[in-house]
Task: structure prediction
Amino acid sequence: MSGIPHLTVDLDAPGVSRGHLVVPGGVDRGELSLPVFSLNKGEGPRLLVTGGNHGNELEGPLVARRLIESLPETQTCGTVIVLPVLNPLAVEAWSRNTPLDGLNLNRVFPGRAGGSVTERIADAVSRVLLPMADTVFDLHSFEPTWDFPPAATTHPIADPDLMARTVRMAEAFKLPLTLVWDYNDTAGMFDIVAQNQGKVFVCTEFGGGTVGADNLAIYEAGVRNALIALGLIEGKAEYPTSRQPKSGQTLETHPHDELKSPAAGIFEPRCSVLDQVKDGDLIGILHPMDSLSAVSIDIRAHGTSIVVAIRSGAHVHANQGVALVARPPKN
Amino acid sequence: MSGIPHLTVDLDAPGVSRGHLVVPGGVDRGELSLPVFSLNKGEGPRLLVTGGNHGNELEGPLVARRLIESLPETQTCGTVIVLPVLNPLAVEAWSRNTPLDGLNLNRVFPGRAGGSVTERIADAVSRVLLPMADTVFDLHSFEPTWDFPPAATTHPIADPDLMARTVRMAEAFKLPLTLVWDYNDTAGMFDIVAQNQGKVFVCTEFGGGTVGADNLAIYEAGVRNALIALGLIEGKAEYPTSRQPKSGQTLETHPHDELKSPAAGIFEPRCSVLDQVKDGDLIGILHPMDSLSAVSIDIRAHGTSIVVAIRSGAHVHANQGVALVARPPKN
Result:
């Protein structure tokens, strides 16, 4: 029930390779085989595309599958490795975390060889796949109870050169939003491990966590745009149409830009994502549900900003996040 | 810990009344107090509006709250009783069923006085509130993993006169879809109990089960349209705008109109709700996720129909429903 993580095929072989990344077994379960694809067309960028990091974000696996179908027709150089589902145990459960050990895969990188199954997945990806790539796209979505526009995101990176290259790569998706997300809870995230190795890492957040045909077309176009920017495929990058404006904006957000619920109750959104708000504008209303005479509480904007995420409806606890706003970068 | 269900206020008193519907305690928990509102403006229709029947469908409670705020300004006659949350235990858990007893409130009507808490809620509503109304609007939503347009729905009713009046009432919401839903699993549903007493009962299904500001405006307009049709408030009924077309259509659907997943995997929707499809058109694709060489399976339309519900993305089991189509009524 042990062993070392390995590939069942040589992903560096010329042309198409299909096989599995084998995650060794441990005390909690036997080995896992994660399907993996690569297309090596010689010199050029080395891109790793991953999906299914969180099991309730399924746009990524679907866009990854579409990529596998289209690359043999479109890729002109370099190597693209695609792992559509990083965490099949969470995907099968439609759960953010792995049910077996309760861990969030995107908080345990670079993983641990002797750890529980989530840590062993992170270890296998970090040790076997990450060294093969210079650029990583990790295809996420927002949780189902949030509204969020299709976006390419990154956390702030200390190295200014890597930061500039990462933002440029993120903007190349030409999605409605490129977001520089200053976030406190980044320990164990996939991007931090990759960036520490000098790699360009873009985390896409493809909408509100439910998969619709219209949005999937936007996501697919975004990934295609990024591959064109890398020179991996030919074509003209275009802002994906559909209901989104034919442009994109780059914004940044900080921990104090999260609006919290003032009490327990049902949150009612009063604005939509990408709405611009001024100081005092109504973002949403918190309705205590235990009494109809309890006063509903307005949640208002502090300063001019743009709503990038808004909870789409759930019973919330006091001090739970209900909206996230952002602003244009200062420089 | 027992007793009989009762109201803490006289909802028939003239003007506004606010109080609670008290659901007696039982062996599983103590009594529950459900906030309830009424506005009695004399002769006219007697309407009961309920929300929060399922705890993960929160548009209803929010629209019910808006109604409570607006009625004192707008209602001209009759009586409107509003119970925003039928099942607070499920709402607090954001769960379809009641966590305490695992029961689906909308399958245990008319309830049972000595039963578990879900059955006691149904009993209290059936015995105390239902007799006070001649018309009922129960404000539901679709589950978060489905896409569904704002719709007013009814099951087929044996009595042709009540059926005609019910469809007319449903169409008065002027939502994008009025759906006559022939459904096998109706035992214990709220509407069946109400219709057996000769009442007009409309079940609204407000979109895909996540609450957004744009859609909430449509839902609110739909309920307002229905109140205008009842003569309870004044105003001009208009098709709610936003991204939906300014019209509505009445369709019917039967158990064989549900498309099932041919295998376990991730369902990828390839069309949107209200799309018209012809025989053989692609509805979606089922992707087995255990191997990249496993063939993805196309799920295609049987005959000309209109997609009314499509799963928005989840890991599905074999034979699980992934889409529902409908057709114009034959007569």
